[in-house]
Amino acid sequence: MNLHIRIEAARNALSALGRQPISTAMTILALAIVIALPVGLFTVLTNMENLLGSWRNQAQISLFLHKDASPQAINRLQHTLAKTEGVVGVRYVSADAALAEFQKHSGMVAAIRTLGENPLPASFVVQLDPLRYPPSALQQLISHWAQDPAVATAQSDLHWVARLQAILALGQRAALILAVLLALGAVLVMGNTIRLHIAQRRDEIDVASLVGATRAFIRRPFLYQGLLQGAVAGLVAWGIVVAAFYWLQGPVDRVSALYGTQFSLVALTPEQGAVLVIASALLGWLGSLLAVGRHLDHTFA
Amino acid sequence: MIRLINVTKHYPGRHHVLREVNLHLRKGEMALLTGPSGAGKSTLLKMLLRLEGVSNGTLMVNGVDLATLKRRHIPAYRRRIGVVFQDHKLLMDRDLFANVALTLQVAGLPARQVQSRVRAALDKVGLGDRLREYPATLSGGEQQRVGIARAIVHTPEILLADEPTGNLDPRLSNEILDLFRDFHHHGTTVLIATHDQGQIDRLGLPVLRLEGGRLHTPEDYQ
Fold it and tell me: What pTM value is reported for the model?
């Protein structure tokens, strides 16, 4: 295929778009909004996952040990815990250390002295990566450790993480469904736009066909139009998502300050943005291909 | 060059447009196709352009049976033919250069060749100095000249014209038909559909007359 034919087709496509700037801008904006919705939702979910990940050190399980657990049993348990996948840290808290900590934080020194002996057991504080296990597996893991002969009780604060994880999984599934539906919508929007362009340029198509234009020759400018509009819509969608996240950062800062933490929203990385533009261009191209294909089936029948 | 053997054309549920038509138009010949409105002149030209199929019989152009011509080969076949329409079929939003260049662009010619050949074709029809004008600024006769330039710019083997002088006054009609004669003298096979009796008498060319679906031709065109 000669390059000059493609260049001419691209020029033809640009000139067709330039002849109707308002209609072109409206199509691009409509496509951009359709694309920005699922992309925005996916990005929100990704940020929530990041947030969950940043809390991983706070997701911990306390394994309280039997008072008569032997040092060998405690060592063996510590070794097992450290080797378990998803465990990011294991800290042994002796009975004395627990008592010291309790006295420090509770201020109930006198009350404890009346007991005569240290009532607190030794324990392991296990820090887990909450994203490593699905909620059911996490529960199984805790139950498994609770059955160790050295362990008296297992106490977990991971239930909220499990719930959040389940909600995120649901959100991801919903976002995927939305993305598929809206991608179909984008294809239809582009198909309809190209159908209108075809109707406006019907004379040109008919004349080109009479003087010996191939299907590919007639189709090419329309495909380039779809590709170009899709790519620009992808860029605009990227801009919409970035602007929305920039706008949301202020409220997010205020909320995270209330929790004594700091969290920065991440809109889209350059790589993700590039994928968005390419995917959007392909959607535009696909919409054009379907519309122009149907028309040419009639022309070349 | 163009050969029709017992060609019949009918549309479902309608009468026969052409009945067992026989014709042999040789390379470099020029003939007029006449007949009243609705006689089937345009249908015959459409069949030669492979816009319509043959119901029965054989239609061959340059040894190719159009009934067996594959769909993907139709564009290449049409590029060997030039066609002129009564209504010119010019693209009103393109200048004269772009209108004529289309024929060469579909054939994939490089821009430099397109440039020189379009200029030459428009020169030939007397519009070489108006390349950047738009069809709407031209008279009917001038528009038809652009249509002719578009039809001959790729030096086709066959030139078909469907009532090319239908909307023109006698003086302009003479000019247009003289252009066709000029191309014929350069070896192009020309078939012109017309019902203008004045022109038919003036040109003194072989006349192929369609009437009631039958084609009446001089004996050596059978």
Answer: 0.69
